[in-house]
Design brief:
alpha+beta, four-stranded antiparallel sheet, seven-stranded mixed sheet, Immunoglobulin-like, 282 residues, 2 helices, single chain
């Protein structure tokens, strides 16, 4: 009886199902110094599954202050719920996706959390209710592994040169779109950019020739349906570097006419300068 019981126990141990997750949400902190801003990069590592969306919450300890959250350089381009911190719950909630597929074997950058603490010590940042969605056309929801990360807040000062960011955001793209499920079907501008330094801190929109830039999210609802005014958007990183682009198909004939007129004026000035020089020589 005992040998049979032992064999059965071993069989059950080998054949029993183990908890397998479709992905791992991992957080990568930078060195943390008391009183100085530091970052935690939130990444997703798919494991054997083709995924295209992720959602969840991240609990932040009370003694750590969330200074900002950046989606710059994210592999996700669609944000039903932008990463945002709630003082009431002490959590960052997010839900994002991409038309592309997050393939197994490579970590995908989701967003970056910037924090500051005034008291040295050890702090735990805890992911909660993390789930991913299969890129199978049905959006099957699967739980994901999300280990807790410990932050050691010390007194060693990070050299200032390590915090320098002289590069402006890049790959800044803006386009006009419509969706019956968004903004009551009104046309909107969608903007996306990347920044490998301090991350994109904000997006700004200038709607019209004489308008001022205003801070917006990744979506901006158009105020003029006919869209006769030109629109510019710009991405601003954490230290103020800026990259601005014109939104295609805005401004009408007048916008492009200004550039044609400016080009003709430049040509005219060059011709006049050449003619004047010839007169001086002769």
């Amino acid at each position: 009886m005992k040998p049979f019981f032992l064999f059965a126990l071993i069989s059950l141990t080998v054949l029993a199902p183990t908890m397998v997750h479709a992905a791992v949400l991992q957080m990568v902190p930078s060195p943390a110094t008391e009183g100085q801003e530091f970052s935690v990069r939130v990444q997703l590592l798919p494991e054997g599954e083709a995924l295209n969306a992720v959602e969840g919450n991240i609990h932040i300890p009370e003694d750590l202050q969330v200074t900002r959250i950046s989606t710059g350089g994210s592999a996700l381009t669609l944000w039903p719920a932008q990463p945002a911190f709630s003082h009431a719950s002490g959590e960052i909630s997010f839900a994002g996706g991409t038309p592309d597929v997050l393939s197994s074997g490579a970590s995908a950058q989701l967003f970056t959390i910037y924090l500051k603490g005034d008291t040295q010590g050890s702090y735990k940042i805890t992911p909660e209710d993390i789930a991913v969605f299969r890129a199978d056309g049905t959006g099957t929801r699967i739980s994901a592994s999300a280990p807790v990360v410990s932050i050691a807040l010390g007194t060693e000062v990070v050299p200032a040169e390590n915090l320098t960011d002289r590069s402006a955001p890049y790959d800044v793209t803006a386009a006009i779109g419509t969706d019956p499920s968004l903004f009551d079907g009104a046309p909107f501008v969608y903007v996306y950019g990347r920044d490998e330094g301090t991350g994109i801190a904000s997006y700004q929109v200038k709607d019209g020739w004489f308008a001022r830039y205003q801070t917006v999210g990744q979506y901006y609802v158009l105020t003029a349906p006919q869209n006769t005014q030109p629109i510019w958007v710009r991405a601003v990183d954490g230290v103020g570097n800026i990259r601005a682009v014109h939104v295609p198909h805005t401004g009408g004939v007048l916008y492009y006419g200004v550039f044609v007129l400016a080009a003709l004026l430049m040509i005219l000035l060059v011709l006049l300068a050449v003619r004047y020089r010839k007169r001086l020589i002769s």
